[in-house]
Amino acid sequence: MSETLENLSSETRKFPPPAPLAAAANVTAPAYDQAAADRLGFWAEQAQRLSWAEPWTQVLDWSNPPFAKWFTGGKLNVAYNCVDRHVEAGHGDKVAIHWEGEPGDTRTITYSDLLTSVSQAANTLTELGVSAGDRVAIYLPMIPEAAVAMLACARIGAMHSVVFGGFSVDALSTRITDASAKVVITADGGYRRGKPSALKPTVDEAVARCPGVEHVLVVRRTGQEVAWGEKDLWWHETVERAATTHKPEAFDAEQPLYILYTSGTTGKPKGILHTTGGYLTQASYTFHAVFDHKPESDVFWCTADVGWVTGHSYIVYGPLSNGATQVMYEGTPDTPHKGRFWEIVDKYRVTVLYTAPTLIRTMMKWGDDIPAKYDLSSLRLLGSVGEPINPEAWMWYRANVGRDRCPIVDTWWQTETGGIMISPLPGVTETKPGSAMTPLPGISADVVDDTATSVPNGGGGFLVLREPWPSMLRTIWGDDQRFIDTYWSRFGAGAGHGDEWVYFAGDGAKRDEDGALWLLGRVDDVMLVSGHNISTTEVESALVSHPSVAEAAVVGATDPTTGQAIVAFTIPRGNVDTEGEAGERLIQDLRNHVARTLGPIAKPRQIMLVPELPKTRSGKIMRRLLRDVAERRSLGDVTTLQDSAVMDLISSGMKSGK
Ligand code: ATP
Ligand code: MG
């Protein structure tokens, strides 16, 4: 990519925070000034949200960049901070987790219950020979034991490596091997799409390839038949019979907490390493600030799976360190019917909902009449994460879910950043549909050109982070060199110029005339059409703004005349006729619509109407696979693809020239 990204779309709608929310907001405008005046002092103050067994001596040690140490000398126990201290403060009877199984079974888990379970699991892991620094792989459905297992590892200073419960034997075994995990925690199965879906057979095969695994701890969830080997132990025969008390030991602020592999949207997943003091500080502060969490009245629901970073930071560590009450749901959004999410919001009177653009666009496809049937009046704040949210999806979310009352926080961050980095503050920021707005207090994000120079307002380029932040990744597990090469070798000191270490996020962005940030997708996905750098996100958003379109993915395919040409894969909304001539007319109409919205340079060469798009298990569009299809190559790494049949469907559509 050369100097800048073209700035094609212009969005003028603005939404100020609702006055009552602004008046009672946890964080107000002066936080930005305070953090700008003294960034480290600001983070030191946020670290006081936690209980430290020993105070730190230095906020940030950046003497060996890019390897950061935060709160050096400090000691704490992460599980104590997420569980015990709330019980000690008299909130033992408060509900931590309202769990809803897909078949409709429920469990209510208080902070006291959580303390008992986490203590038992910590005792069992210790008995199984797990000690501080060891790795435990967790391969579970969305059941409370997932959070319990993570906290039990944290409690004894062991590291967890959560692997999404839908991954294959290959994906699981390579992650177990990469981390040299000693113990695997799994279940017989979980419920998905109305039926039990087995997990244990995948673990059996994976463990057969991983001789380093000593024990497999199995939760009984579905009751289905499982093969039983000598490494296997039932959770209910071990954990649930273990001693119910456990004394938490304090560990160093840089004690590793977990390894988590990135989604694999752009290539082979990276094992991201997070540690404890800084990570928990930022997870805790951002949950308090961005979701304006009110412990007395809020019911939070993050719809992510614990298998990706959003589940780590905003199901486990952020909410629980704040003593929040939250909903955890096991299943899919359309089981047994397409209103399931809204039924859950109503049932538990959810006040703050955090979900992903992919889900919002799916709900758009299903139709407005579905959310309209439910009482969503408990909601007061909505969040989005995972991909750029197209302005029309944002507007749909606001109107149909938020009923034009609730502010939306579009939160940009990554597995690597550990916590939210760029987001509106709901009581402060006037939001624009599709923009993540501004960096949070204490975060220095910037948009730069090829030479690491900030672009002016109105310009576009690379998103970078100029200063270390508490929940930053510490390295890629076992591969410091890849850590340096991937994130620190593009700009600044890491690239051999300047003395500032600049973190390269891999995302394109623009800064509008007001200084608000717009995420424009992966730098790898930027298209170069007749000498213009065009972002996939802007073209996709133009397509989604057409009333017949629910979702779109755009890629640049090699073209003899323009260098690259824009190829769009488009999912029509539910009620749209796409048969024969109607389909041809729609395609022409869409091409013209994009040209009118963004200019003729962005007019797609080809538009295909498809039933589905290839997505990662975390719901992100995998454009690299579509580029392979558009350029008629064989597919790259598909291990994190959600549904492999989708690629066959799309490729066969390509061949028939549709
Ligand atoms: P890999 O690094 O293996 O390709 P991944 O980047 O998809 O996988 P994650 O860490 O889960 O793995 O995702 C982070 C990325 O998601 C960001 O770099 C960005 O591209 C995208 N993203 C997340 N939130 C937002 C948002 N609010 N707006 C725009 N993009 C977002
Ligand atoms: Mg990434």
From TrEMBL:
Its EC number is 6.2.1.1. Mg(2+) binds at residues 544, 546, 549. One of its GO terms (biological process) is acetyl-CoA biosynthetic process from acetate. One of its GO terms (cellular component) is cytosol. Residues 31-82 form the Acetyl-coenzyme A synthetase N-terminal domain. It catalyses: acetate + ATP + CoA = acetyl-CoA + AMP + diphosphate. It holds the Pfam family AMP-binding. SUPFAM superfamilies: Acetyl-CoA synthetase-like (SSF56801). GO terms for molecular function: acetate-CoA ligase activity; AMP binding; ATP binding; metal ion binding. Acetylated. Deacetylation by the SIR2-homolog deacetylase activates the enzyme. The modification N6-acetyllysine is found at residue 620. ATP binds at residues 386-388, 410-415, 507, 522. The keyword Magnesium applies. It is an enzyme of class 6 (ligase). The keyword Amino-acid biosynthesis does not apply. Gene3D superfamilies: 3.30.300.30, N-terminal domain of ligase-like. It comes from the Bacteria. Its cofactor is Mg(2+). Belongs to the ATP-dependent AMP-binding enzyme family. NCBIfam families: Ac_CoA_lig_AcsA (TIGR02188), PRK00174.1 (NF001208). Catalyzes the conversion of acetate into acetyl-CoA (AcCoA), an essential intermediate at the junction of anabolic and catabolic pathways. AcsA undergoes a two-step reaction. In the first half reaction, AcsA combines acetate with ATP to form acetyl-adenylate (AcAMP) intermediate. In the second half reaction, it can then transfer the acetyl group from AcAMP to the sulfhydryl group of CoA, forming the product AcCoA. This is Acetyl-coenzyme A synthetase. It comes from Krasilnikovia cinnamomea.
